[in-house]
Amino acid sequence: MMEVIFLGTGSGWPRLERQPTSLLIKVGGKNILIDMGPGITRRLLETKHTLSDIDYLFISHFHPDHISDFIPFLQSVRYNLGYKKDKPLLIIGGKGLKKFYKNLRKLFRHLVDAGDKVIIKDLVNKEIILGKNIKVKTLRVPHNKESIAFRIEYNGKSLVYSGDTKFSEKLADFSRNADFLILECAVPNGVEGEDHLNPELAARILKEAHAKKVAFVHLFKETENSKEIRNFEKIYHQKVIIAKDLMRIKVK
How does the average pLDDT of the chain come out, rounded? Predict the structure, then answer.
């Protein structure tokens, strides 16, 4: 069984009720944290977890609403500021993650140099086995040049997180028959020039993916209040969950 805790379900639009999108995945006795936008460390503490509880950190891309808490996180790791793990923490991201970390060390110097306490790994269009038979696959998605989606499989169950993305046939195929698909749906229908999904495009992915359960995240306020989201099932004949911060969903 897997459990998803939605630490955040919003975007770069600052809102009291929605932190930027971040997930805590509990699977196979391990805790996977996906993305660390502003305020996510505090959200993690609200769930009665600490930084030391994190076994793996996944980063979908380098935009501030997905990465800004990574800086104080590295400082906490270096100086054991609420972080007490003995084993190195594996951090997985898209192409350029190692360079991104190197540039942070240039900017903040020793304050964010976690040394051998972290292992940085680029993982694009590949798979890796973590812990006891936790299979993680990644897919390059069209948003930022390093943007990736994640698929986590364990004991016959599967979860897909799209990250930020435009429409992608490859993402629909990557998500096929997933037990739980967590899909961004940031902008309203008719918005052009944005590297995000709107309800119409999200519906196209859902139609092809045939996921058993779906939740929308990364919602702008105008999208969340749109008639297409409020009446999504009636309009597109697809049932979705509009995720909220601190919501918990079990995948079983």
Answer: 96
